[in-house]
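Listing 4. Sequential folding, example run.
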Amino acid sequence: MSVIHVDTAACRLRFDDIDIPCAIGKGGACPADEKREGDGCTPLGTWPIRGALLRPERVTLPWPLTLPWRWTRSGDGWSDGVDDPQYNRPVQLPHRFSAETLHRTDQAYDIVVVLGHNDAPPMPAAGSAIFFHCWVDARPTEGCVAIAKAEMIALLPRLTPASVMQIV
């Protein structure tokens, strides 16, 4: 099992020989059982990596991935509506409940690594769309972990279905 270590106090990500800056939630870090939708906190804990979502017109794959992945499409979204029966799941847009679009105008979701936070099963309002993604100008996120796109491209082929992210 490979472990991506995220030190929320230092805003550093370590993985094998990689040691780079990262961004976390604008609300800082919080215990996973205190995570709430919209609080901007990055949940502490060890989260399995479920797979990757890649934007085809912005990412090329010169190498094979062992991690499950798929290309995103313009109507792809992720439910963050706390009353949605599909809360914290991928959805098609437009969607009857609140949902994030995965095709953003910035580069944040060009590469999205889905973390297994609050997904087995999802508990309404306990936090959705906790991703590992590309940062935008190194700004804090809404609760995700983010790194520079070039570093994400270098790290992505090293991830496997057994990889986890440990956020401390």
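-- end of first protein; second protein begins --
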Amino acid sequence: MSWTWRFETADGAPADPGELSGADFSAQGDAESWLGEIWRELADKGVGQVYLLEDGREVYGPMSLAAQE
């Protein structure tokens, strides 16, 4: 089982966060923890929303990376 993130701009276009693109994770919790630690850096690179994928299947999303006011 492989968990990955798909990155998009706020308007749904593909986003490339470069070296922050992450990796494959063996557990959902690991993928979510990674995102929790790095989301601000992703947002600074132009990522506006993310989708969590399990073996290429969309599990949930879009999840906005916009900071709450």
